[in-house]
Write a structure and sequence with these properties.
Distance between the termini: 56 Å
Number of strands: 20
Structural class: alpha+beta
Helix content: 25-40%
Largest sheet: 6 strands, antiparallel
Length: about 375
């Protein structure tokens, strides 16, 4: 795991003044009538907080500019300016095809996405664009919302890799890209440890940077990382086990779904009929918590994002078969799920215990 990258301190002086002071240590500052080539921090906004950018003025790619060295050309200046600002903890956006470097303070709360697809009404451009929410500058145009969302994810992954390099030792850097590739897309991740078939830790939510750094460390150690569906895992010896034949436990990472399924198992061949929906409603209204399923992790399994009761049709592939099944998912749900029979019986449902699986029931709605 890792803490988030160092954030820019917000003193009383303005962003423009702080950026100017920082860049003036390395680059000449453009001053009309005095210094004819150099950088200048500007904004076209009239409202606060203003959208700030650094622009290089004047100069040619071949003429020496100032005593620190030869002129580099605007593109190389832009790259160096972006590097200096990023290294100092500022949020930086370089818009393709433009020489300006957009800059802002990193937000205090960096959880959640930095890049997002946004509908665009500017003529002669794509109907969608990808916006950097930190600097309020766009980084790409797209023809569809799906294309914009995919480009936003690519930008997000590049951003997380940059942050990960800032908070890890150089010997880990070669493994970060490998970890990013293994994990694939996903902003928020769930982590759990599986010690055996009946005991595992509850899933804990983390930002993507934690997953990338954790998997990169596993790759560096030489652990065999595997991916099945969206599940990424590796095995480790249990710390307190003996050295001769240590017990192993698996570390699992899976992305958290933006809209996980509620209260029933969302397998490909499973259906949710009106009886399932009615039972879920009755149990929720009685104060019971439904299980929340998220990403498919392969092999017909789906990651459980929150423990609770599960309701499924007696035959999910044929809703003509009468009855539903009720079960508790996760040990914390056992106590509250035990109330399920009394809730349904109070609504005139017939409930029978499952002899083969304690804590599970079969229920039938009231007769017509």
């Amino acid at each position: 795991m890792t803490n988030s990258v160092p954030r820019t301190v917000l003193p009383s002086v303005s962003l423009a003044a702080r950026v100017t002071t920082l860049l003036a240590r390395t680059f000449p500052e453009y001053v009309p009538g005095v210094e004819y080539e150099g950088f200048r921090v500007e904004s076209l906004d009239t409202r606060e907080p203003r959208r700030m950018f650094v622009r290089w003025h004047g100069g040619t790619p071949t003429r020496p500019v100032w005593t620190h060295g030869p002129a580099l050309g605007r593109e190389k200046y832009r790259a160096q300016i972006a590097e200096v600002l990023t290294r100092e903890g500022y949020a930086v956006t370089c818009v393709p095809g433009r020489m300006d470097v957009y800059v802002s303070d990193r937000p205090h709360d960096t959880a959640g996405p930095r890049f997002a697809p946004v509908a665009n009404d500017v003529p002669f451009t794509g109907p969608w664009l990808v916006m950097d929410l930190w600097t309020r500058a766009h980084v790409a145009f797209a023809d569809t919302e799906e294309e914009a969302a995919a480009e936003a994810m690519r930008a997000e992954r590049r951003h997380v890799l940059t942050d990960a390099r800032m908070v890890t030792a150089p010997e880990l850097w070669d493994f970060l890209e490998g970890a990013d590739a293994v994990l694939g897309d996903g902003l928020t991740w769930l982590r759990r440890e599986v010690h055996n078939v009946v005991r595992h830790t509850a899933p804990v939510r983390h930002e993507r940077i934690d997953a990338v750094v954790d998997v990169a460390n596993a790759l560096r150690r030489g652990d065999r990382c595997s991916a099945e569906g969206r599940l990424v895992g590796y095995e480790r010896p249990y710390p307190s086990a003996g050295e001769d034949r240590p017990d192993m436990y698996s570390v699992h990472w899976v992305p958290k779904s933006a809209a996980p399924a509620v209260g029933y198992f969302p397998g490909a061949g499973w259906q949710r009929g009106p009886e399932v929906a009615t039972a879920i409603t009755l149990l929720i209204e009685a104060g019971l918590t439904p299980v929340r399923y998220g990403e498919s992790i392969g092999g017909g399994s789906v990651m459980c994002e929150a423990d609770g009761f599960m309701v499924s049709a007696a035959d999910p592939s044929d809703l003509r078969v009468p009855g539903i099944h009720i079960d508790g998912i996760g040990s914390p749900s056992a106590d509250q799920t035990a109330r399920a029979p009394e809730v349904l019986r109070a609504a005139s449902w017939r409930v029978e215990g499952d002899r083969g699986w304690p804590g599970a029931w079969t229920a039938f709605p009231p007769a017509e």
